[in-house]
Amino acid sequence: MNNISVSFLTGPKTTPDPDEENAVKNDYSAAIGALIFSLVFLLGVPGNLFIVWSILARIRQRSVTTLLILNLACADGFLMALTIFFIIYLAMQSWVFGNTMCKIVFYLCNSNMYASVFLITLMSVNRLLAVVFPHTLYHLITRKVVKRVILGTWVLVMVISIPSLVFRDVKEETDDMNQTTYVCAPNHTLRRHVRFEYAFQTVAGFIIPYAIIITSYVLILKRLRETRFQRNIRSEKLILAIVIMFGLFWLPYHVINMIQVAAAWYPKDSATRKRLYGMAESTRAVTSTLAFISSCANPVLYTFAGKSYIKNNGFAFMAKLFEGTSLEQTGTKSTQFTAKDDLGKNNIDSENHTLASPLQNRC
Question: Which family does it belong to (predicted)?
């Protein structure tokens, strides 16, 4: 989530350069930024906690999809809790938490970015195995395998987020009135550092995962057309909605990342470099905010998806939604063939391995 707070505090630079982060006090921008983060906090923290509570307290049999949603809610909810740091940062227009917290907070922000997209990728791969390889590879998905994959995903997330610890420091700045402020900003000392961090974020956190996601859904659609499988499954629609929403929120952010990477290839005094960097700086605040808001959007999505349950189930409506996806994935009438399958199988979309006992995941 690089530059998200800095962007709200910076204005146009006379000499744009990706290695120079000069904070400009702007009360209006800071107020708008603090308001957005406050709304994100008020919506995202309770919303994601409600998802966690619904799954842990209300659902006994948890499918793979439900467990991945649980971990996604844990990641998003934890990130939303960090918004308090950004609210104070913007209100005071100075980073008052020290250099260590500067590194840790942005490290955790980037960890959430990777965790979110990796968990969504696992959802897509899980659907691929359930639909395309239901009687071969999908039978290998046991409770132990799921636990190890989720744990391994979190370990990978923590490792590949390390550049956020290295390329982030508190900088001291003095304005025209000799007032000193502190900015938690990137500390790229070389152009290759800019290219590495932003390119790595986009390739590892967007291009590769989304290539896997798109490939999975292409194969799923191909399989369904071959078998003429007619169905109306909430889990399929819910996962697809999560994938699309995440992509819409994050694509602009990664486009700006690549523009900044392109700018870093040009000499420091190049007009093209200044133009590209100026473009990135002028839109960084908006794209970073969209990316950040994505972590509080899932509870809203689930609420709309489960609105039909609200009247009859009250606060248990979300648990009912997730139970519905589990039932579909364990083989109900809605998941049966309506036409003959050339393989003679009756249920290519079953998640036979629902997990009756809770996994010890990262929540």
Answer: Belongs to the chemokine-like receptor (CMKLR) family.
